[in-house]
Amino acid sequence: MAKHSGGWWVPLLQNRYLLALLVMLSVSTLVAFFVRAGLDACDRNIEVVDKQVKSVPQIASKPSPLSFMKSKRVLLVSHQLSLSGGPLLLMELAFLFRIVGAEVYWITIQKPSEEDEVIYSLEHKMLDRGVQVFSAKGKEAIDAALKADLVVLNTAVAGKWLDVVLKEDVSRVLQKVLWWIHEMRGHYFKLDYIKHLPSVAGAMIDSHVTAEYWKNRTQERLRIKMPETYVVHLGNSKELMEVAEDSVAKRVLREHVRESLGVRNEDLLFAIINSVSRGKGQDLFLRSFYESLQLIQGKKLQVPTMHAVIVGSDMNAQTKFESELRNYVIQKKIQDRVHFVNKTLTVAPYLAAIDVLVQNSQARGECFGRITIEAMAFQLPVLGTAAGGTTEIVVNGTTGLLHPAGKGGVIPLAKNIVKLATHVERRLTMGKRGYGRVKEKFLEQHMAERIAAVLKEVLKKSKSN
Ligand SMILES: *[C@@H]1O[C@H](CO)[C@@H](O)[C@H](O)[C@H]1NC(C)=O
Ligand SMILES: *[C@@H]1O[C@H](CO)[C@@H](O)[C@H](O)[C@H]1NC(C)=O
Ligand SMILES: *[C@@H]1O[C@H](CO)[C@@H](O)[C@H](O)[C@H]1NC(C)=O
Protein backbone atom coordinates (compact mmCIF):
# COMPACT_ATOMS: atom_id res chain seq x y z
CA MET A 1 0.00 0.00 0.00
CA ALA A 2 2.89 2.32 0.58
CA LYS A 3 4.60 4.06 -2.27
CA HIS A 4 7.99 3.20 -0.91
CA SER A 5 11.03 3.14 -3.06
CA GLY A 6 13.63 0.58 -2.07
CA GLY A 7 11.66 -1.02 0.74
CA TRP A 8 10.46 1.37 3.36
CA TRP A 9 12.04 4.58 2.23
CA VAL A 10 9.49 7.25 2.08
CA PRO A 11 9.72 9.90 -0.59
CA LEU A 12 10.78 13.20 0.87
CA LEU A 13 8.06 15.76 0.70
CA GLN A 14 8.71 18.28 -1.97
CA ASN A 15 9.03 21.65 -0.33
CA ARG A 16 7.96 23.43 -3.44
CA TYR A 17 4.84 21.36 -3.66
CA LEU A 18 3.97 22.14 -0.08
CA LEU A 19 4.57 25.81 -0.55
CA ALA A 20 2.31 25.80 -3.59
CA LEU A 21 -0.23 23.99 -1.52
CA LEU A 22 -0.13 26.62 1.15
CA VAL A 23 -0.42 29.42 -1.37
CA MET A 24 -3.38 27.71 -2.92
CA LEU A 25 -5.01 27.67 0.45
CA SER A 26 -4.24 31.34 0.78
CA VAL A 27 -2.47 30.83 4.03
CA SER A 28 -0.95 34.20 4.71
CA THR A 29 2.53 33.02 5.36
CA LEU A 30 4.82 30.59 3.68
CA VAL A 31 6.76 28.57 6.09
CA ALA A 32 9.99 26.72 6.03
CA PHE A 33 10.96 24.83 9.11
CA PHE A 34 14.47 23.83 9.73
CA VAL A 35 15.26 20.65 11.53
CA ARG A 36 18.48 21.50 13.08
CA ALA A 37 21.61 19.52 12.67
CA GLY A 38 23.56 20.93 15.57
CA LEU A 39 26.17 19.04 17.47
CA ASP A 40 24.86 18.90 20.96
CA ALA A 41 21.88 17.48 22.78
CA CYS A 42 20.03 20.68 23.29
CA ASP A 43 21.02 22.20 20.04
CA ARG A 44 19.56 19.52 17.90
CA ASN A 45 15.95 19.76 18.57
CA ILE A 46 14.82 23.24 17.99
CA GLU A 47 12.95 24.05 14.85
CA VAL A 48 12.88 27.56 13.67
CA VAL A 49 10.76 29.24 11.17
CA ASP A 50 11.86 31.25 8.25
CA LYS A 51 9.90 34.43 8.38
CA GLN A 52 11.00 35.88 5.14
CA VAL A 53 8.13 35.23 2.82
CA LYS A 54 5.04 37.11 3.80
CA SER A 55 2.17 37.70 1.45
CA VAL A 56 -0.08 39.59 3.80
CA PRO A 57 0.79 42.61 5.92
CA GLN A 58 1.24 41.87 9.57
CA ILE A 59 -1.90 42.06 11.57
CA ALA A 60 -1.67 44.83 14.11
CA SER A 61 -1.01 43.20 17.42
CA LYS A 62 0.09 44.17 20.88
CA PRO A 63 3.20 46.35 20.97
CA SER A 64 6.33 44.29 21.31
CA PRO A 65 7.52 43.83 24.88
CA LEU A 66 10.96 44.57 23.46
CA SER A 67 10.06 48.06 22.27
CA PHE A 68 12.37 49.60 24.89
CA MET A 69 15.25 48.25 22.79
CA LYS A 70 14.53 50.85 20.10
CA SER A 71 17.79 52.54 18.99
CA LYS A 72 19.84 50.36 21.31
CA ARG A 73 22.93 48.76 19.84
CA VAL A 74 23.06 45.01 20.13
CA LEU A 75 25.89 42.73 19.11
CA LEU A 76 24.93 39.10 18.57
CA VAL A 77 27.76 36.57 18.66
CA SER A 78 26.99 33.19 17.14
CA HIS A 79 29.40 30.26 17.34
CA GLN A 80 28.42 29.21 13.84
CA LEU A 81 25.79 29.85 11.21
CA SER A 82 23.80 26.86 10.01
CA LEU A 83 20.30 25.47 9.90
CA SER A 84 20.63 24.34 13.47
CA GLY A 85 18.65 25.42 16.48
CA GLY A 86 21.13 27.67 18.24
CA PRO A 87 21.97 30.03 15.39
CA LEU A 88 18.41 30.10 14.07
CA LEU A 89 17.07 31.01 17.48
CA LEU A 90 19.55 33.85 17.70
CA MET A 91 18.40 35.00 14.25
CA GLU A 92 14.84 35.04 15.49
CA LEU A 93 15.98 37.29 18.31
CA ALA A 94 17.82 39.50 15.82
CA PHE A 95 14.58 39.99 13.90
CA LEU A 96 12.57 40.69 17.05
CA PHE A 97 15.12 43.43 17.81
CA ARG A 98 14.95 44.80 14.27
CA ILE A 99 11.18 45.03 14.39
CA VAL A 100 11.40 47.40 17.36
CA GLY A 101 14.15 49.45 15.72
CA ALA A 102 17.28 48.30 17.51
CA GLU A 103 20.63 48.50 15.74
CA VAL A 104 21.71 44.92 15.35
CA TYR A 105 25.20 43.61 14.55
CA TRP A 106 25.95 39.98 13.92
CA ILE A 107 29.17 38.00 13.93
CA THR A 108 29.75 34.31 13.31
CA ILE A 109 32.82 32.85 15.01
CA GLN A 110 33.38 29.65 13.08
CA LYS A 111 33.05 29.80 9.36
CA PRO A 112 34.30 27.33 6.78
CA SER A 113 36.96 28.81 4.52
CA GLU A 114 35.15 27.90 1.32
CA GLU A 115 31.90 29.43 0.13
CA ASP A 116 28.90 27.94 1.90
CA GLU A 117 25.45 28.19 0.42
CA VAL A 118 23.58 28.03 3.71
CA ILE A 119 25.71 30.74 5.33
CA TYR A 120 25.36 32.91 2.27
CA SER A 121 21.60 32.62 2.27
CA LEU A 122 21.20 33.16 6.02
CA GLU A 123 23.49 36.18 5.98
CA HIS A 124 21.51 37.69 3.15
CA LYS A 125 18.31 37.07 5.00
CA MET A 126 19.77 39.10 7.86
CA LEU A 127 21.11 41.85 5.64
CA ASP A 128 17.64 42.17 4.08
CA ARG A 129 16.27 42.83 7.53
CA GLY A 130 18.87 45.45 8.29
CA VAL A 131 21.10 43.33 10.48
CA GLN A 132 24.75 44.33 9.97
CA VAL A 133 26.95 41.32 9.48
CA PHE A 134 30.66 41.60 10.36
CA SER A 135 33.64 39.32 10.39
CA ALA A 136 34.29 37.93 13.88
CA LYS A 137 37.91 38.98 14.00
CA GLY A 138 38.13 42.43 12.52
CA LYS A 139 38.27 45.86 14.07
CA GLU A 140 34.58 46.33 13.26
CA ALA A 141 33.69 43.50 15.59
CA ILE A 142 35.77 44.95 18.42
CA ASP A 143 34.29 48.41 17.89
CA ALA A 144 30.79 47.00 17.82
CA ALA A 145 31.46 45.18 21.08
CA LEU A 146 32.84 48.28 22.77
CA LYS A 147 30.00 50.51 21.60
CA ALA A 148 27.18 48.05 22.13
CA ASP A 149 24.56 48.46 24.84
CA LEU A 150 24.20 44.72 24.91
CA VAL A 151 26.23 41.74 23.70
CA VAL A 152 24.50 38.38 23.41
CA LEU A 153 26.85 35.40 23.34
CA ASN A 154 25.02 32.39 21.97
CA THR A 155 25.97 28.94 23.36
CA ALA A 156 28.80 28.08 25.71
CA VAL A 157 31.26 27.61 22.87
CA ALA A 158 30.98 31.26 21.87
CA GLY A 159 32.95 32.13 25.02
CA LYS A 160 36.25 31.51 23.32
CA TRP A 161 35.73 34.53 21.13
CA LEU A 162 36.02 36.89 24.11
CA ASP A 163 39.73 36.35 24.70
CA VAL A 164 40.77 35.57 21.18
CA VAL A 165 39.29 38.71 19.66
CA LEU A 166 38.77 41.23 22.39
CA LYS A 167 42.05 40.54 24.17
CA GLU A 168 42.79 43.32 26.67
CA ASP A 169 39.35 44.88 26.05
CA VAL A 170 37.49 41.89 27.49
CA SER A 171 36.91 43.46 30.88
CA ARG A 172 35.24 46.47 29.29
CA VAL A 173 32.68 44.27 27.59
CA LEU A 174 31.82 41.57 30.15
CA GLN A 175 29.37 43.70 32.13
CA LYS A 176 27.08 44.02 29.14
CA VAL A 177 27.24 40.40 28.06
CA LEU A 178 24.15 38.24 28.26
CA TRP A 179 25.15 34.63 27.75
CA TRP A 180 22.46 32.46 26.17
CA ILE A 181 23.11 28.82 26.91
CA HIS A 182 21.36 25.90 25.19
CA GLU A 183 23.56 22.96 26.06
CA MET A 184 23.78 20.37 28.74
CA ARG A 185 26.76 18.18 27.95
CA GLY A 186 29.86 17.57 29.98
CA HIS A 187 32.37 18.73 27.44
CA TYR A 188 31.13 22.31 27.61
CA PHE A 189 32.35 22.62 31.17
CA LYS A 190 35.79 23.72 30.15
CA LEU A 191 37.47 26.83 31.42
CA ASP A 192 38.58 27.41 27.88
CA TYR A 193 35.01 28.28 26.96
CA ILE A 194 33.46 29.64 30.09
CA LYS A 195 36.07 31.15 32.34
CA HIS A 196 34.45 34.58 31.93
CA LEU A 197 31.01 33.27 32.80
CA PRO A 198 31.11 34.47 36.44
CA SER A 199 31.77 38.05 35.33
CA VAL A 200 29.10 38.55 32.69
CA ALA A 201 25.89 40.45 33.39
CA GLY A 202 23.71 37.38 33.17
CA ALA A 203 23.12 33.90 31.81
CA MET A 204 19.90 32.99 30.05
CA ILE A 205 19.07 29.28 29.99
CA ASP A 206 16.20 27.43 28.26
CA SER A 207 14.91 25.39 31.21
CA HIS A 208 15.12 25.14 34.99
CA VAL A 209 16.71 21.69 34.88
CA THR A 210 19.43 22.93 32.59
CA ALA A 211 20.05 25.97 34.76
CA GLU A 212 20.37 23.71 37.84
CA TYR A 213 22.74 21.48 35.97
CA TRP A 214 24.94 24.41 35.02
CA LYS A 215 24.96 25.72 38.54
CA ASN A 216 25.98 22.35 39.86
CA ARG A 217 28.59 21.57 37.25
CA THR A 218 30.34 24.91 37.24
CA GLN A 219 30.62 24.72 41.00
CA GLU A 220 31.61 21.07 41.34
CA ARG A 221 33.87 20.76 38.37
CA LEU A 222 35.38 24.15 37.82
CA ARG A 223 34.85 25.91 41.12
CA ILE A 224 33.40 28.92 39.38
CA LYS A 225 30.14 30.62 40.21
CA MET A 226 27.34 31.20 37.74
CA PRO A 227 26.38 34.83 37.17
CA GLU A 228 22.79 35.93 37.70
CA THR A 229 20.88 33.22 35.83
CA TYR A 230 17.51 33.59 34.12
CA VAL A 231 15.41 30.74 32.82
CA VAL A 232 13.67 31.61 29.59
CA HIS A 233 11.40 29.00 28.07
CA LEU A 234 11.15 29.28 24.31
CA GLY A 235 8.00 30.02 22.33
CA ASN A 236 6.43 29.04 19.03
CA SER A 237 6.74 31.45 16.15
CA LYS A 238 3.68 33.19 14.77
CA GLU A 239 4.13 31.36 11.48
CA LEU A 240 3.97 27.96 13.09
CA MET A 241 0.86 28.96 15.02
CA GLU A 242 -0.81 30.13 11.82
CA VAL A 243 -0.46 26.73 10.20
CA ALA A 244 -1.35 24.93 13.41
CA GLU A 245 -4.57 26.93 13.66
CA ASP A 246 -5.58 26.62 10.01
CA SER A 247 -7.77 23.54 9.89
CA VAL A 248 -7.97 23.47 6.09
CA ALA A 249 -4.20 23.61 5.64
CA LYS A 250 -3.79 20.99 8.32
CA ARG A 251 -6.23 18.63 6.66
CA VAL A 252 -4.59 18.93 3.26
CA LEU A 253 -1.11 18.44 4.71
CA ARG A 254 -2.32 15.48 6.71
CA GLU A 255 -3.81 13.79 3.69
CA HIS A 256 -0.75 14.44 1.60
CA VAL A 257 1.77 13.14 4.13
CA ARG A 258 -0.32 10.11 5.00
CA GLU A 259 -0.69 9.22 1.39
CA SER A 260 3.06 9.49 0.82
CA LEU A 261 3.70 7.23 3.81
CA GLY A 262 1.00 4.75 2.94
CA VAL A 263 -0.90 5.47 6.14
CA ARG A 264 -4.68 5.63 5.97
CA ASN A 265 -6.68 8.42 7.52
CA GLU A 266 -8.12 6.14 10.20
CA ASP A 267 -4.72 4.65 11.16
CA LEU A 268 -2.86 5.85 14.24
CA LEU A 269 0.46 7.50 13.63
CA PHE A 270 3.16 7.98 16.29
CA ALA A 271 6.23 10.02 15.41
CA ILE A 272 9.63 11.04 16.62
CA ILE A 273 10.82 14.22 14.91
CA ASN A 274 14.49 14.68 15.77
CA SER A 275 17.86 14.14 14.14
CA VAL A 276 18.47 10.43 14.26
CA SER A 277 21.00 9.66 16.98
CA ARG A 278 21.25 7.47 20.06
CA GLY A 279 20.78 10.48 22.32
CA LYS A 280 17.34 11.08 20.81
CA GLY A 281 16.31 7.52 21.54
CA GLN A 282 14.85 6.34 18.22
CA ASP A 283 16.17 2.84 18.95
CA LEU A 284 14.34 2.60 22.26
CA PHE A 285 11.21 4.08 20.73
CA LEU A 286 11.15 1.35 18.07
CA ARG A 287 11.45 -1.25 20.80
CA SER A 288 8.55 0.34 22.67
CA PHE A 289 6.52 0.49 19.49
CA TYR A 290 7.15 -3.19 18.85
CA GLU A 291 6.25 -4.04 22.46
CA SER A 292 3.03 -2.06 22.16
CA LEU A 293 2.05 -4.11 19.10
CA GLN A 294 2.74 -7.25 21.11
CA LEU A 295 0.64 -6.01 24.03
CA ILE A 296 -2.26 -5.19 21.74
CA GLN A 297 -2.06 -8.57 20.06
CA GLY A 298 -1.68 -10.41 23.37
CA LYS A 299 -4.69 -8.73 24.92
CA LYS A 300 -6.64 -8.79 21.66
CA LEU A 301 -7.36 -5.08 21.98
CA GLN A 302 -9.41 -3.39 19.31
CA VAL A 303 -7.36 -0.48 18.01
CA PRO A 304 -6.78 1.10 14.62
CA THR A 305 -3.73 -0.01 12.65
CA MET A 306 -0.72 1.66 14.25
CA HIS A 307 2.28 3.16 12.49
CA ALA A 308 5.50 4.78 13.61
CA VAL A 309 7.40 7.38 11.65
CA ILE A 310 10.92 8.53 12.33
CA VAL A 311 11.51 11.95 10.83
CA GLY A 312 15.14 13.01 10.83
CA SER A 313 17.08 10.28 9.07
CA ASP A 314 20.39 11.05 7.48
CA MET A 315 21.98 7.99 5.94
CA ASN A 316 25.12 9.95 5.16
CA ALA A 317 25.87 11.09 8.68
CA GLN A 318 24.71 8.33 11.01
CA THR A 319 25.12 5.18 9.03
CA LYS A 320 25.79 2.79 11.90
CA PHE A 321 22.92 3.85 14.09
CA GLU A 322 20.62 4.23 11.09
CA SER A 323 21.45 0.69 9.98
CA GLU A 324 20.80 -0.56 13.46
CA LEU A 325 17.31 0.95 13.36
CA ARG A 326 16.56 -0.50 9.97
CA ASN A 327 17.88 -3.91 10.91
CA TYR A 328 15.69 -3.94 13.97
CA VAL A 329 12.64 -3.17 11.86
CA ILE A 330 13.47 -6.00 9.45
CA GLN A 331 14.25 -8.42 12.24
CA LYS A 332 10.90 -7.73 13.92
CA LYS A 333 9.09 -7.77 10.57
CA ILE A 334 7.44 -4.42 11.11
CA GLN A 335 8.54 -2.82 7.82
CA ASP A 336 4.97 -2.05 6.87
CA ARG A 337 4.43 -0.24 10.18
CA VAL A 338 7.61 1.81 10.48
CA HIS A 339 8.55 4.64 8.15
CA PHE A 340 11.77 6.59 7.88
CA VAL A 341 11.80 10.12 6.58
CA ASN A 342 14.94 12.09 5.79
CA LYS A 343 15.83 15.18 7.70
CA THR A 344 13.63 17.88 6.33
CA LEU A 345 13.23 21.60 6.44
CA THR A 346 9.51 21.32 6.91
CA VAL A 347 8.13 19.76 10.06
CA ALA A 348 4.65 21.30 9.97
CA PRO A 349 3.29 18.77 7.46
CA TYR A 350 4.37 15.93 9.73
CA LEU A 351 2.88 17.57 12.78
CA ALA A 352 -0.34 17.95 10.82
CA ALA A 353 -0.24 14.28 9.80
CA ILE A 354 0.50 12.48 13.04
CA ASP A 355 -1.62 11.63 16.09
CA VAL A 356 0.99 11.52 18.84
CA LEU A 357 4.47 13.00 19.22
CA VAL A 358 7.07 10.91 20.99
CA GLN A 359 9.92 12.83 22.61
CA ASN A 360 12.34 10.11 23.63
CA SER A 361 15.53 12.03 24.36
CA GLN A 362 17.79 10.09 26.69
CA ALA A 363 20.07 10.72 29.64
CA ARG A 364 19.57 14.31 30.80
CA GLY A 365 17.00 14.79 28.05
CA GLU A 366 16.39 17.91 26.08
CA CYS A 367 17.63 21.27 27.16
CA PHE A 368 14.19 22.50 26.12
CA GLY A 369 12.95 20.62 23.06
CA ARG A 370 11.14 23.03 20.83
CA ILE A 371 9.46 20.31 18.79
CA THR A 372 7.46 19.49 21.92
CA ILE A 373 5.71 22.86 22.03
CA GLU A 374 5.34 22.79 18.26
CA ALA A 375 3.53 19.47 18.48
CA MET A 376 1.30 20.78 21.25
CA ALA A 377 0.36 23.70 19.03
CA PHE A 378 -0.99 21.06 16.61
CA GLN A 379 -3.10 19.64 19.46
CA LEU A 380 -0.99 16.53 19.76
CA PRO A 381 -0.46 14.69 23.04
CA VAL A 382 3.21 14.05 23.85
CA LEU A 383 4.76 10.85 25.14
CA GLY A 384 8.03 12.08 26.59
CA THR A 385 10.93 11.01 28.75
CA ALA A 386 10.79 12.36 32.30
CA ALA A 387 14.02 14.25 31.75
CA GLY A 388 15.26 17.72 30.94
CA GLY A 389 13.05 20.45 29.55
CA THR A 390 10.32 17.99 28.59
CA THR A 391 9.24 17.83 32.24
CA GLU A 392 8.71 21.59 32.22
CA ILE A 393 6.59 21.48 29.08
CA VAL A 394 4.53 18.31 29.35
CA VAL A 395 2.11 18.03 32.27
CA ASN A 396 2.12 14.34 33.07
CA GLY A 397 -1.36 12.89 32.74
CA THR A 398 -2.79 16.12 31.35
CA THR A 399 -1.01 17.10 28.12
CA GLY A 400 0.83 13.83 27.71
CA LEU A 401 2.43 10.96 29.57
CA LEU A 402 6.00 10.71 30.82
CA HIS A 403 8.16 7.60 30.97
CA PRO A 404 11.67 7.10 32.37
CA ALA A 405 14.70 7.55 30.13
CA GLY A 406 16.87 4.53 29.45
CA LYS A 407 16.02 0.88 28.86
CA GLY A 408 13.74 0.99 31.89
CA GLY A 409 11.47 3.27 29.90
CA VAL A 410 10.81 0.85 27.04
CA ILE A 411 7.88 -0.96 28.64
CA PRO A 412 6.34 2.14 30.27
CA LEU A 413 6.43 3.89 26.89
CA ALA A 414 4.91 0.82 25.23
CA LYS A 415 2.09 0.91 27.79
CA ASN A 416 1.57 4.61 27.24
CA ILE A 417 1.36 4.01 23.49
CA VAL A 418 -1.33 1.40 24.13
CA LYS A 419 -3.14 3.77 26.49
CA LEU A 420 -3.38 6.49 23.88
CA ALA A 421 -4.32 3.97 21.20
CA THR A 422 -7.19 2.57 23.24
CA HIS A 423 -8.49 5.77 24.83
CA VAL A 424 -9.43 8.01 21.95
CA GLU A 425 -11.22 10.61 24.06
CA ARG A 426 -8.30 10.90 26.45
CA ARG A 427 -5.86 11.26 23.58
CA LEU A 428 -7.85 14.07 21.98
CA THR A 429 -8.39 15.83 25.30
CA MET A 430 -4.66 15.73 26.06
CA GLY A 431 -3.96 17.28 22.69
CA LYS A 432 -6.44 20.08 23.31
CA ARG A 433 -4.99 20.76 26.75
CA GLY A 434 -1.52 20.85 25.26
CA TYR A 435 -2.71 23.47 22.82
CA GLY A 436 -4.21 25.43 25.69
CA ARG A 437 -0.88 25.31 27.50
CA VAL A 438 0.93 26.60 24.42
CA LYS A 439 -1.50 29.51 24.13
CA GLU A 440 -0.91 30.31 27.76
CA LYS A 441 2.87 30.00 27.98
CA PHE A 442 4.70 29.05 24.84
CA LEU A 443 4.06 31.64 22.16
CA GLU A 444 6.58 34.01 20.61
CA GLN A 445 4.93 36.83 22.54
CA HIS A 446 5.57 35.01 25.84
CA MET A 447 9.17 34.34 24.92
CA ALA A 448 9.63 38.00 23.97
CA GLU A 449 8.14 39.07 27.31
CA ARG A 450 10.47 36.76 29.19
CA ILE A 451 13.49 37.98 27.25
CA ALA A 452 12.43 41.59 27.75
CA ALA A 453 12.34 41.12 31.53
CA VAL A 454 15.87 39.69 31.44
CA LEU A 455 17.21 42.45 29.21
CA LYS A 456 15.85 45.15 31.49
CA GLU A 457 17.82 43.65 34.38
CA VAL A 458 20.94 43.22 32.30
CA LEU A 459 20.82 46.77 30.91
CA LYS A 460 20.34 48.16 34.40
CA LYS A 461 23.41 46.32 35.53
CA SER A 462 25.62 47.35 32.64
CA LYS A 463 24.60 50.99 33.11
CA SER A 464 25.54 50.98 36.77
CA ASN A 465 29.07 49.84 35.93
C1 LIG B 1 17.41 10.32 1.94
O1 LIG B 1 18.76 10.67 2.09
C2 LIG B 1 19.64 9.73 1.52
C3 LIG B 1 21.05 10.11 1.90
O2 LIG B 1 21.24 11.49 1.99
C4 LIG B 1 19.43 9.70 0.02
O3 LIG B 1 20.30 8.79 -0.58
C5 LIG B 1 18.01 9.29 -0.24
O4 LIG B 1 17.73 9.34 -1.62
C6 LIG B 1 17.04 10.21 0.49
N1 LIG B 1 15.72 9.67 0.35
C7 LIG B 1 14.73 10.38 -0.11
C8 LIG B 1 13.44 9.67 -0.20
O5 LIG B 1 14.85 11.54 -0.45
C1 LIG C 1 25.56 18.15 41.96
O1 LIG C 1 25.17 16.88 41.45
C2 LIG C 1 25.75 15.78 42.12
C3 LIG C 1 25.36 14.48 41.45
O2 LIG C 1 24.79 14.70 40.20
C4 LIG C 1 25.32 15.77 43.55
O3 LIG C 1 25.88 14.70 44.23
C5 LIG C 1 25.71 17.09 44.19
O4 LIG C 1 25.23 17.15 45.51
C6 LIG C 1 25.18 18.27 43.39
N1 LIG C 1 25.74 19.49 43.94
C7 LIG C 1 25.05 20.58 44.14
C8 LIG C 1 25.82 21.76 44.63
O5 LIG C 1 23.86 20.65 43.92
C1 LIG D 1 3.12 10.19 35.35
O1 LIG D 1 1.83 9.88 35.76
C2 LIG D 1 1.58 8.49 35.93
C3 LIG D 1 0.15 8.31 36.31
O2 LIG D 1 -0.68 9.03 35.46
C4 LIG D 1 2.49 7.92 37.00
O3 LIG D 1 2.30 6.55 37.11
C5 LIG D 1 3.94 8.24 36.63
O4 LIG D 1 4.77 7.82 37.66
C6 LIG D 1 4.11 9.70 36.38
N1 LIG D 1 5.46 9.94 35.92
C7 LIG D 1 6.18 10.97 36.30
C8 LIG D 1 7.55 11.04 35.77
O5 LIG D 1 5.75 11.81 37.03
Task: Describe what you observe in this structure.
Helix 14 crosses helix 17 (about 425-440). The chain has a 7-stranded parallel sheet, sandwiched between helices. A 6-stranded parallel sheet has the order 12-11-10-13-14-15, sandwiched between helices. It folds into 2 domains: about 45-235 and about 445-465, Glycogen Phosphorylase B (Rossmann fold); about 240-440, Glycogen Phosphorylase B (Rossmann fold), CATH 3.40.50.2000. It is elongated and about 70 Å long. It has helices at about 15-25, 85-100, 115-130, 140-145, 160-165, 170-175, 190-195, 210-220, 240-245, 245-260, 280-300, 320-330, 350-355, 370-375, 390-395, 410-420, 425-440, 445-465, and strands at about 35, 50, 75-80, 105-110, 130-135, 150-155, 175-180, 200-205, 230, 270-275, 305-315, 340, 355-360, 380-385, 400-405. The chain has 18 helices and 15 strands. The protein is an alpha/beta fold. Bound molecules: 2-acetamido-2-deoxy-beta-D-glucopyranose (3 copies). One 2-acetamido-2-deoxy-beta-D-glucopyranose (NAG) binds next to helix 8. Keywords: Glycosyltransferase, Membrane, Transferase, Transmembrane, Transmembrane helix. It holds the Pfam family Glyco_trans_4_5. This is Glycosyl transferase family 1 domain-containing protein. It comes from Acer saccharum (Sugar maple). GO terms for molecular function: glycosyltransferase activity.
